[in-house]
Design goal:
Layout: H1 12-28, E1 43-48, H2 54-65, E2 69-74, H3 86-95, E3 100-105, H4 110-116, E4 123-129, H5 135-150, E5 163-167, H6 174-185, E6 189-193, E7 209-211, H7 214-221, E8 225-228, H8 244-251, H9 255-259, E9 266-268, H10 281-284, H11 291-310
Parallel strand pairs: 1-2, 1-3, 3-4, 5-6, 5-8, 6-7, 8-9
Helix pairs in contact: 1-5, 1-11, 2-11, 5-6, 5-11
Catalytic activity: carbamoyl phosphate + L-aspartate = N-carbamoyl-L-aspartate + phosphate + H(+)
Function: Catalyzes the condensation of carbamoyl phosphate and aspartate to form carbamoyl aspartate and inorganic phosphate, the committed step in the de novo pyrimidine nucleotide biosynthesis pathway.
Domain Aspartate/ornithine carbamoyltransferase Asp/Orn-binding: 161-309
């Protein structure tokens, strides 16, 4: 792979390759010495224009466990705050000899621009761009689903026949978009649950079933996976629902809803969680919950992505 920019254009074979490679990476993380020499001599830059905890630390851990040199770049406190353009920043990274750039940016399409601009020769990995996509989050979610639903040895498996219900702020969620495209490619049936105001324009033309009632969606879809999304208040510039109390009552995942799920059903959340709003503490901390597993699995998936992008000769864009 040359770059990893989205899941919409990711083929099924490439998706399964990443997931299976992540299985290999996960196995190495059970050893006393977790580091691999695979990317020794390579330099990975974490170029983050937005705040992040899980994603940035996960990518840093992944790169270091592959023995890469890591440079963490935050827009705050850098020349970006003085007005430096993405082009000039990219050319600076090129001059520093960056082999891979992990970029998070508030503008949708910024990673694709960086990858196609000619400003830098490095492989580009999208760590979230605006409300567009967050491909490694979807990949780690799929990795977690495979393991929970099919056991630890799920190599080569897709998600054919799996029912996934994604609930909440779909309109502002790059996680929801990336999951929709990836899970559909892997054969899963995806449903969105949200108030009309939190559905993106054109969502009904996507390969997804749309519900407004969470209880109806659970009853009709009989999901294997319920994925809750964070309310992204930082991206909201208007009132999308009357108040938090009403949102929690209608679309929050509480203890009663968790108790009514089928035994096999798992509960997911990409984090950070707003407990009591999107999800109750009882549901978040239950045996059904995969929240912490997702964090752990994220390191293995990002190791796999970095390995496939940087370990050999890079071919065409993927």
């Amino acid at each position: 792979m040359r770059h990893l920019l989205d899941t919409k254009t990711l083929s099924k074979d490439d998706a399964i390759l990443i997931l299976d490679t992540a299985e290999d990476m996960s196995a190495t993380q059970q050893r006393e010495v977790k580091k691999l020499p695979t990317l020794r001599g390579k330099t990975v830059v974490n170029l983050f224009y937005e705040d992040s905890t899980r994603t940035r630390i996960s990518f840093e851990a992944a790169a270091k466990r592959l023995s890469a040199d890591v440079i963490n770049f935050s827009a705050k406190g850098s020349s970006v705050s003085k007005g430096e353009s993405l082009k000039d920043t990219a050319q600076t990274l090129q001059a520093l000899g960056a082999d891979g750039v992990v970029i998070r940016h508030p503008a949708s399409g910024a990673p694709a621009m960086l990858a196609s601009s000619g400003w830098i020769d490095a492989g580009v990995l999208n760590a979230g761009d605006g409300t567009h996509e967050h491909p490694t989050q979807a990949l780690l979610d799929a990795f977690t689903m495979r393991r929970r639903l099919f056991g630890d040895d799920s190599r080569g498996r897709d998600l054919d026949g799996t029912s996934v219900v994604i609930v909440g702020d779909i309109a502002h969620s790059r996680v929801a978009r990336s999951n929709l495209w990836l899970l559909t490619t892997l054969g899963a049936a995806v449903s969105f649950v949200a108030p009309e105001t939190l559905l993106p324009y054109g969502a009904r033309t996507w390969p997804v079933t749309v519900h407004h009632s969470l209880d109806d969606a659970i009853r009709r879809e009989q999901p294997d996976v319920v994925m809750m999304l964070r309310i992204q208040s930082e991206r909201m510039h208007a009132a999308f629902f009357p108040n938090e109390r009403e949102y929690a009552r209608n679309w929050g995942f509480n203890d009663a809803r968790a108790a009514g799920l089928a035994d096999r059903t798992i509960i997911m959340h990409p984090g950070p969680m707003n407990r009591g709003l999107e999800i109750s503490s009882g549901a978040a901390d239950s045996a059904r919950s995969t929240v912490l597993e997702q964090v752990t699995n994220g390191v293995s998936v990002r190791m796999a992505a970095l390995y496939l992008l940087l370990s050999g000769e890079r071919g065409d864009t993927a």
